[in-house]
Amino acid sequence: MKATNPVFTGLETTIFETMSRLAMTHKAVNLGQGFPDVDGPLDIRQAAADALISGPNQYPPMLGLPELRQAVAAANKRFYGLDIDWQSQVIVTSGATEALADCLVALVEPGDEVILIEPLYDCYLPMVKRAGGIPVRLRVTPPEWALDLDALERAFNDRTKAILINNPMNPTAKVFSDEELQAIADLCVRHDVFAICDEVYEHLLFDGARHRPLMTFDGMADRCVRIGSAGKTFSLTGWKVGYITGAQELIDPIAKAHQYVTFTTPPNLQKAVAFGLGKDESYYDGLSAELQAKRDLMASGLEKLGFGVLPCAATYFLTCDISGLGLGDNDIEVCRKMVEEAGVAVVPVSAFYGDEAPGNFIRFCFCKQDSVIEEAIARLSDWMAPVAAGAIGN
Length: 394
Prior knowledge:
Layout: H1 15-25, E1 29-30, H2 42-54, H3 66-80, H4 86-89, E2 90-93, H5 96-107, E3 113-118, H6 124-130, E4 134-141, E5 146-147, H7 149-155, E6 160-166, H8 178-191, E7 194-198, E8 224-229, H9 230-233, E9 242-246, H10 248-259, H11 267-277, H12 281-304, E10 308-309, E11 317-321, H13 331-342, E12 344-345, E13 347-348, E14 361-365, H14 370-384
Parallel strand pairs: 1-12, 3-4, 3-6, 6-7, 7-8
Antiparallel strand pairs: 2-9, 4-5, 8-9, 10-11, 11-14, 13-14
């Protein structure tokens, strides 16, 4: 039998699906996969239901319904001061993952180098390889997850086609500083490099911080594509509605890739997301405030148990250092024990690296009901009580 595509042959199932399956098997509290355990705003869901019944339910325009593309352009202006032509600079996609695939297939040619920053969202590496790109990996290092600007500069050269940046960043919960973003922008301009910006957590920043897109920096409007997600903004991850904003010269080829991937997205969901993007400031402020409170609830509980809780400036995730806790030899073993013995499912951070990953960090998801977070902390407390006696895992 002829070989199948080596990028995907033998590729392990995503860590999120793996941990979710284990959570179901062991009836565990699932703090692994990044999705809320309650649905988003009722008025948005009602708008989708009404649109489904009233129709039409046939193919919408390939680029997306005009009302959603207009809403995306208006949101770019409202939140970031970006002047976007909705007709030529916005595409609606079936989720941000499809948006990433469209951008990489359209912008990267075989042999092009693509800069990635580790730890990285797990789909980035295989997607770049499938597009024929050559991954060039940099790292941000805990606990502050600072970007080494000298290493960043060394990564750019004449073969660099694009940099893929996730800001705010999963899994680190890092928000890139203005200094880091300026350095990236300067290097992109100097080397004529595209920036693919995964900004799905743009409205989930904490402690009064506000997102600043790389597209707003000098010289970046024409070389940047910005990816957003209704799933994250409205806690409706199962809807899989994403959107890409960029210069027309970049959107045109990306649209060609999109038309042969999913072509379009359910029209009732598009109408509901357009409605949602028009919600007032109280919604967006309330969303970040609610998640910040959940972050603090989980951080407090984990710190009391001895976990080394790292800074969390955004997203759904807390990273913890497990060094010295005696829970296992590495993050993978600890996560396995935790789901099987404590009934709490989390994710090993080593899963977000290509190779030679640190083995002492695990990631908790806190976008859950307070009662779920409290139950997880209680289970962990019971499980960890015998640690001093060396009973765990015996």
